Every structure is written in C-alpha cells, then in structure tokens.
Amino acid sequence: MAKSNGQKRRREAEADMEQNDAATTATTTEAPESQDGPPSKKSRVEERRSLFVRSLPSTATNESVADFFSQHYPVKHATVVVDPKTKESRGYGFVTFTDADDAVEAKAKLNNELFGGRRLRLEVAEPRHRAGGPGVVKSRIAEEKKKREDDLTEAKKLPKLIIRNLPWSIKSSDQLSKNFSKYGKIKFSDLPNEKGKLKGFGFITFRSKKHAERAMIEMNGKDIDGRTIAVDWAVSKEEWQQKNIDERPGKPETKKTPKAKDEEDQDEDEEMKGMSQEDRDVAQFMKKMEDLDSEDEDEDEDEEGGANFEEVKEEEKPKRTTDNSTTVFIRNLPFTATNESVKEHFEKFGPVRYARIVMDKMTERPAGTGFVCFVKDDDFKACLKSAPRPRLPVKTAKTSVLQDESVDTDGRYTLDGRVLSVAHAVSKEEAGRLAEAGPAARKTEDKDKRRLFLLSEGTIPTNSPLYGLLTPTEIKLREQSAQQRKKQVQGNPSLHISLTRLAIRNMPRNMDSKEFKQLARQAVVGFASDVREGKRQALSKEELARGGAEDREAEHRRKEKGVGVVKQAKIVYEAKDGKKVDEKSGAGKSRGYGFIEYSSHRWALMGLRWLNGHPLKNEAGRTVRLIVEFAIENAQVTSRRRANEHRARQKRSEIAQNGGNPADKRGSKPVTGNKGQAKVEKVEVETEEESSKKKDAKEKLAQRQRIIGRKRMVRKNKKAGR
C-alpha cells in the first residue's frame, strides 16, 4: 500500500513537471521576427530572464516569493506551483526578472539562501528542446554569458596560490614574484590594494601545477622580513562564498527519507533564527543599485495572458529598496545599546528592516554610532523631520558632557538618558569623501581639549597576535587600568591626557632610572627601524600634526640646545613605611611603575607603540610585558609648571643678553647721569628688600614649628604621667 502511494506521488510530480515544461515550451514556438513593438515572451525566455526555483517551503506563495527576490533585483512576476487539492506549494516555482543579467546575478547570489527555513536551489529556466521541434537561436546575452563561463573555466585551469600575512616591505608584484620564481615559471602575480593601501595578501599563478605544489609546500610557514607567511591554493570568489555557506550551522538540503524530513524542517527553522533577513540586507546596505528604467510592458503582459505564469503587477506592491534611501545614521548612542534595543526604540516611527551598531575595530567595543533602515519611505521621512536639530554652542559657554533633554520633549529620540542625533545616511563614496575631509577640519578646530581620545591608545585588541602572548594576570591588569583611568577623567573635569608624558606599569623591580631612560631612547629608534623594515605603519599626517605650534616650538628649542628626545625618565620608589622617596636616597625600592616625558607628541607616540607589550626580564627571570599609556595630568598643575618654565627661559635669555652673571650687574658702580643705571639701582634695592622679607618669613615659620613641637612634648609627657 505504501509502495503504491509513493508511485502515485511520483506520477503526480512528473505530471506537474511535464505541464510546466509544456508551458515553457509553448513560449518558445517560432513567431515572425519584428523590429518594432515590445519584446515577445519567446524573446524573454531566450534571454534567460527566468529562474527555476526548487526547495520552496510548503507555505510559499506567489507574493512571498516575489517579495523575497524583489529585495535584491527588480522582479516582473513570480509563480509557485501548488497542489490542486491541498492548495499548498509543491516545492518549486518560477521567478521572472526584468533583465537577463539580473537573473544570472540572482542565481549566483541567492543560490542556497534561506527562505522560510529552507535553502533555495536556483537554475536558469531554459526553453525545452523536444524531438522534431524547431531549434531556438541563442541570443547575444546567452553568447556573452557562455564566453564569460569559458574564460572562467580557462582561468581555473592555471594553478593559483594565495599568500597571506605578507610583510609591508613587499610593495609590488615583482617583489612577490622574486620570492617564488625559484620554484618555476610564473605566469603572473598580483598584490590587491584599496586606495593605494596594500591588503596584506597576494596571488601567484604558476604555469605548472607541480611547481605550484612545490612552492606551497616549501614556502608555507616561511618567514619573510620578520613575518610568517601562509600559502594555500586560491579558489574563485564563488567557491569561497559557497564554502562559507557550507560551514555555517546547518548544511544545504540533501536527500533524506520521509521519516527524517520533519526533523530537517525543524533544524532549518532554527537556522533561520541565527541568519535572518536583516543579515542579508546589511550585507548589501552600502551597495547602491543603479536606477533601472524599465519600459512599459503592458502589451507584453497581454500577450502572456494565456501562459501558465500568473502575473503579479508591480503597482499592487510597493517596491522595497535595498540602498540607503530609507536609512538614518545615528550618533551619541549609549555604549550599552544593542542592535535589538535600537531597533525596538525606532519601531515607534514604523516598521524597521534592521538596526546595526557600529563597532570600533581596534577596541572591539561600540563606537557610539549606528544605522537604522526603515521599511517605508514615509516612516523614514517622519523620523528625520521631527528629529531634534543640533544647537550651535555659544562661544563663551563652557562645554558639557551632559545632554539637554529639553530638546526632545516627547522622548522619542532619547535612549538611556542620551539624546540621539539623527541624520540621513550617505553613500559609501560620500562617506569616504567626508572621512578624508575630516582630518583637515579637525586641524582647524580641536573640540576635545582634554584629549580623551588618547585613552584608547595602548589598548591591545583581542584579535591581535600580541594579545595571545599576554598572561591572564597582565590582561587583568590592563582591564583594571582602563577602568580606573576612565573613572578618573569622568570624576574630575580638570584632568586631561598628556600629549608627551607616558605612564609605564608592570616594570621589572630591578630596573633603575638610567636603564629606564636608555630604554625610552631605544623605543624611538626601534619604532623608526620597524617602519623602514615594513614591520610597522608610520605615523599618519593627522598624528604628526596633533601637537601643533607648541610641539614645533619645543622641537626647535631641543635642536638648538642639542639635547635628546627624552626629557625625563622617572621610576617611583618607596620606603619601608610605604612613603615615596627619591631614588638618590638609596633607601627605597621600586614600585614597578614610572613615567617617561618626551620633548614632543611625535616621539611620545612612537615610544608608546614600541614599548607597549615590550617583553623584559624581571628579577626572578620571568618575562613581563610593559603596560604603556598616556599619563593623566591635572590641567592646573600643568599650567603652573609651564608658567614656571616660561619664566625660567625668559630669565636665562635676559642673563645671556646682559653678557653673563647677574651678580656682575649688581656689583658694578653706578654711572652718574645714566637713566638706565638708575633703573638698575632701583631693581637692586627691591631685590634686597624681597630677600629680607623672605628671611623674616622663614624665621617666623621656624618659630611656629618650635612652639608646636614644645606643645606636643607637653601633651605626650602628661599622657605618660597618667
């Protein structure tokens, strides 16, 4: 009985397939060629604008399939073959696009994509060639596609290698070829780059597969200029994408017994939770589709009236956009916000397709910005129209990190106590142009007077190779340091980050200040050497210009004096009672941290990046890695120190102009009738009066201290007598 039922289902499926084949063949019958009028259905099929879709879920409908494919490419109509009894999908159907190229791209892009919990299998629908029937002439588009496929097949025959983790010293394809030419003849080599910046990998194509295999075996894991390269077979982009799809949780659908079919459907439903429609939208978010000027095909649709495809008019459903025309860019997001919380917040304006938080690549933490894409254009416009407008700050007013919540009266733009800034998201090209113009604008106006952006300098990303070398104790120390520094600057507005002073922790206790200063000099030289060898990236123009005129002046003074780039290298020492003592006293021991001050920000940044994570041996012989950050300073103390330094420089310059020691000036006899000398005498008198006042003040202070000491002794004796 079960066998007969299975045969019956197979006969029904074959009958349906035969019926659709007949419908497809009906569209390929010969018709008189015509130069005028809209294209016939025969020409559209010949142009291969239709896809045959398999593995559709039983709940699929014409509308849902058309809606899914129209998110990616303009769709003319879609048809799902249904069971006449159950009115449910039989698992296959057809989708017709307005352009043949869109059909080819849709097949390559959407094959194996999830739809309703199942992975679609797509094929280009071709006219069926029956025995005795007229042959179908291939169109120009089909010939071009065949030529591209042939060229791709020919290219795949050549053995191609991909080389990853290349050093920055290899800057041209010829340099890359020299490292592999000894293994055989090279057809060509390539070093991909983006806007002139190398990506760190390259390709080598050999003429012989044996030579390529030998090169891969011997070069894989080899060091080139201090970096270990990885060599492997290169695959096409399509194969690489297919491999990624196969490696995702849940494999593509395979033939299974009817008993396992229900379990497979449940597994695919779980896959859908992990890979939603939003992820596919975000993947193409910044890709701006060109406007397709579709011609009026009403006559064409009338001609297709008797076909087996059911028409879906474009006017019945609004077009869903796939570019950034309904996307807003959000600033000032709280760092605790998630994709889900942002999406839920903006659903007050209307249905949201997706919401994404931007992550900082270096720190792997939220950057405080994000994107929200609305489904409907009206909701997008309403969100922009009622958004709070940024207020220009008054020049005399002091800046504040607090938000003025009065600008958002109804609270629709306030998330976790922060008023959001909403703007229309720009295209990728426009964003790149603005990013290039940003540093130039920041040169003229530096809003971050406290330089809090330097707090993240010295943070080691978790995906960095250096992070894997840190011990759990060192990782914990770095996390505690970051939290403590953040808490300090938030609690005291007078604190700021120094441009030239570094704070170093986790130092060996047996290191003295002399060795410490030598290490500070070595850091600058080591950084420059690494840049020349291609092991590090040089400082950017923006980083070099941070110090401004103050840095240029300091560098000029340093070169005039002929001194080094390290102004101070200080290690903090403590006595047995825990109090800080001077290193020269010889009575203390190191606390394991210190400070380095460079003459300008340029040298400080070079020193930080070289010293941070630098390994040293401690007194026990174990390796420790330095924790280096820009030091936190008090703005008031710093201003007083700079004022004292400025006065000292002026005094030294005056002494130099007067020809030496100021004592000579005081000892010289006054010349009668000389007005300038009279002024000198007046200054001498004032100087003597000031010295006498200082002397009196010291005597009074000493007297007070003696009285206080006597009173303490009296109280102490009284207590002892009791």
Write the layout of secondary structure elements.
Layout: H1 2-26, H2 41-46, E1 50-54, H3 62-70, E2 75-82, E3 89-97, H4 100-110, E4 114-115, E5 118-119, E6 121-124, H5 140-157, E7 160-164, H6 173-180, E8 186-190, E9 193-194, E10 197-198, E11 202-206, H7 209-219, E12 223-224, E13 227-228, E14 230-233, H8 237-247, H9 258-274, H10 277-283, H11 298-303, E15 327-331, H12 339-346, E16 352-359, E17 366-374, H13 377-385, E18 414-415, E19 418-419, E20 421-424, H14 428-444, H15 472-491, E21 495-505, H16 513-532, H17 541-544, H18 548-561, E22 566-574, E23 580-581, E24 589-598, H19 601-611, E25 615-617, E26 623-625, E27 627-634, H20 635-657, H21 662-667, H22 675-721
Antiparallel strand pairs: 1-3, 1-6, 2-3, 4-5, 7-11, 7-14, 8-11, 9-10, 12-13, 15-17, 15-20, 16-17, 18-19, 21-24, 21-27, 22-23, 22-24, 25-26
